Amino acid sequence: TSLPSHLKSLKKASLPVQNQLGMMHTKKLKQHHSAELLPPALYVIYSQLLAQKEAFVEPIDLEIVGSLKDAQAFARNQANKDTGK
User: Fold this and answer.
1) For the residues 36-62, what does the mean pLDDT come to?
2) Integer Cα distance of 78 and 85 in angstroms
């Protein structure tokens, strides 16, 4: 089997350990990728709240919800508008 399939299996297998230790690396990574698709103003707000949460150990719940595919399509559409396509 290929390296990507091994990595995917390892990531999936590590989820129970991440849950047990309170280290949701996989979830944080998905949220980070989703945050990159936010409109600039929302990204700034999200980033500032996340920084405050981490710096001051604030009990702030941040989550980006919605369709990742829709967000990607919206980002592509906006990029095409910006480049005049």
Assistant:
1) 91
2) 10
